Amino acid sequence: VVYKIFIYLIKICFEFYICVCVCVCAGNVFVSFIGSEDRTPKKKFSEVQKERREQAQRTVLIHCPNKISEKKFLKYLSQHGPISHHFFYESFGLYAVVEFCQKESVTSLQNVTRTPSMGTEAAIPFKSRFFNLKLKNPSSQTSEKSSIPCSNHSPPSSKKLSELLCYAESVDDQLNTLLKEFQLTEEDIKLRYLTCSLIEDLAAAYFQDCTVRPFGSSVNSFGKLGCDLDMFLDLDEIGKLNTSKTSGNFLMEFQVKNVPSERIATQKILSVIGECLDHFGPGCVGVQKILNARCPLVRFSHQASGFQCDLTTNNRIALKSSELLYMYGALDSRVRALVFSIRCWARAHSLTSSIPGSWITNFSLTMMVIFFLQRRSPPILPTLDYLKTLADAEDKCIIEGHNCTFIRDLNRIKPSGNTETLESLLKEFFEYFGNFAFNKNSINIRQGREQNKPECSPLHIQNPFETSLNISKNVNQSQLQKFVDLARESAWILSQEDKDRPSPSSNQPWGLAMLLQPSVVSSVSLAKKKRRKPASERIKNLLESIKSHSPENDTDTNGKRTVSTQA
Amino acid sequence: VVYKIFIYLIKICFEFYICVCVCVCAGNVFVSFIGSEDRTPKKKFSEVQKERREQAQRTVLIHCPNKISEKKFLKYLSQHGPISHHFFYESFGLYAVVEFCQKESVTSLQNVTRTPSMGTEAAIPFKSRFFNLKLKNPSSQTSEKSSIPCSNHSPPSSKKLSELLCYAESVDDQLNTLLKEFQLTEEDIKLRYLTCSLIEDLAAAYFQDCTVRPFGSSVNSFGKLGCDLDMFLDLDEIGKLNTSKTSGNFLMEFQVKNVPSERIATQKILSVIGECLDHFGPGCVGVQKILNARCPLVRFSHQASGFQCDLTTNNRIALKSSELLYMYGALDSRVRALVFSIRCWARAHSLTSSIPGSWITNFSLTMMVIFFLQRRSPPILPTLDYLKTLADAEDKCIIEGHNCTFIRDLNRIKPSGNTETLESLLKEFFEYFGNFAFNKNSINIRQGREQNKPECSPLHIQNPFETSLNISKNVNQSQLQKFVDLARESAWILSQEDKDRPSPSSNQPWGLAMLLQPSVVSSVSLAKKKRRKPASERIKNLLESIKSHSPENDTDTNGKRTVSTQA
Fold it and tell me: What Pfam families does the record tag this protein with (chains A, B) (predicted)?
């Protein structure tokens, strides 16, 4: 017996050790939020950003031949210095992301790299950290046929997800499984920062001290695998240097081009960077300059990483918004699981869409979940105003006249005493918003309580920093009604579910999986509505929703400034 | 008496010393060609280019307040390191060119320089070597009112030139005076290399090992003050690096954009650089992309230096052509004096023009003078074929299949034994071409003798390197006839002149000055022709000459590939 207890203790210790290793070694801040509430110090958003950026700067992207020996590949690259991390993935071909321990290794590699001679074609001789590896003698390696383990960065199919959810042990387990399947992986995050870093190299050619920062879903911990990569060119550091060093009666300034406004400066900078991406940027395709939008941007596809990218210039409020979401996501492990599930539910029922229109956005849904969690008793999440009261002098942040101050040290915020299960929270969420007085009340995470709507939009969710703006101004009454109907239906399904959960082996959808099915009740009710609204009506709605998305009507609907092309 | 002789000897020695100082100190290779035939070793073209480029890289351009104390200005800049050379000039305001002894001084200056804050306007925060100096307290310096000596870089007016020529002592003196007044000054040359270097900085942002090289009149020693600045982006060094260093079975290449042809690559590169110049390039205005021309180019005005610039990509034959002219210009002091005078004469009679058309080009005139000097007995200049026979292995140069080999060490070419005066050469030039059988013969500096014309263009001058091309294909019969008529008339005037030269004090134009006057004989004969040809006829001619300049008909007419826009 003593022996058995001893073995058991060793087993527990070992499992705990593995668990800690996963949390610590992976270096992925998100991993630590899943499952158990670990009390290891959490990093500040800015620390994570800085660390990731520094990692990315000593990382290279290599397009590899399909048949390659991983061992020989690593040996070859190690000539330039030790490698701290690497992984492979498949996109249009096989790619490797190789992170060196030192930045100098990248330069060393670049020094032995040649510009390809193209034969009949011609090459734009641009030197980046994106390489193309070739075999001098392809046959010598094919014999090995070692299959290289590739990291995945696309979300599971509906079918696969449904299976995974059916085999889960509880609704809580279902929500956590969904989060685990959809959240960005460590590799995907590395690739996102690397992509920004490669674009930064291009921009830094002209703007020496610039930074290209990812923002939005790539960094706010709510991003889903495959989501767009939003980045902005931060030129703020440039003007700040050495203004005090001048001596004597002279003042030396750089001769620069002057333009009538910041907006025109932004447009010109993005225009030239767009040209560079288009003509020189390795792997950058489909470059679109959308310079007349409220927030001018360059949209392009980074082919090798597979990311659809939006590049804007100084977008500090959006970055602050990302930081706030990151904070809320990190404060309680239930937040991200609930948000991912609600978003997945909304997408399954076409409440959200990848094209702009009168649909509810993921950002609005996230705000609704945060608001809901602030309304629990005891609250699971603190209000933004409370986070502001905790802020110290260093946290102070005013951007374009907006007070964006809140405490940034996660470790100084007391965890919630609320112990509700995810299952209960999911059901309560649907009930809460199924009965919310949208017609008179506004959702407001700053104060964490309903406010009277200051304007007549069907759905009013206050922008947390630009408080006069409604982030869901684009949502029309029929979309809101659809949301309410589906929320009520889902609440009902979950209450029914309690009574007749199928046996685990039956392979029948249940719990969350049931909610993601094309809804029975709602499909009937929607079918009824469809009979009432003919196709022409639906097309009219679509046109209206597109019209209402013209730039003049554009408000901040997803935490970054939204974008639309002008005809 | 002994004392007087002693003083006299000291005086002679001192004058000789001054003379040597001027030749050596000015560091201007051109100075040494004027006047006496000095036998100090002459630099190779490539050596001059390299030295000038290196100087330019440690030079900065500073826009200064109008009232500035030169002494304080230099003291302020010396904080960053010793200054080897500086000068001021006026353009749109007062500018200073400051050449530091070390390149590091430029970086030091940049480190204390700030990006201007614009108030209502916005700045594109680009950091170059072009600065704007401001006074913190303007009143403190205005009191000094020290007028800063400014270097001049525009040619004399016709009136001024006429005066200078009238006061000359001989026709030889007149030709040398004209050369001295029109040739590029040391300062102008420095400014040209600096401008190229500033553009290189912009291009090097993307193409690390690129060089922007001036070519044509700025470097061939035949450039006139105020002439355009031709430059090309040399990317040849980029592909050449480290191709042999790869080890093992792997070959690493930069991932680059591929395009179907070199031409498209050139267009894309120039297009982006054009955008950069337009949007970021301090002082670059009026940027035109002329990408569909035979030799795609970006034309722009560098406002601060006042240069009209043409930027092309790899244009090595044109650079070789510049080197050849530089050689011919340096071989005998009479060459440049004669070429400048003939060009000035042609311009005075509208035989040449600054706009493209059927006019004779300066390059064609230069070739005619070189050819003429090769035909003297004994020859003043060697043939290109002879320069080729003198070449050693290092001189070998094949560009795009054309043999451009010739000896590059000037000191290995024996000077001519011909002692004809410039006056005599000028007269003989007009007589020679007044009676040249243009209808059947071709001008050919490679062989230095008339050849049968291989095609029917009125004027045929063989391109020295691309020997199947006619550099004066654009010249029509009427322009050629006008040249012949004026040459004959000028020969006649010069022969008359011998008999009745006015007294030096009479202020009457004589010699070369007489030739630059609106011609008496020719104006009569031209007036006659004008009566025969009405305005409509002349307009027709103009249109034809413009038409004949469309890209398909473009041949090499001025030693660089000519350029024209497509509609």
Answer: MTPAP-like_central, PAP_assoc, RL
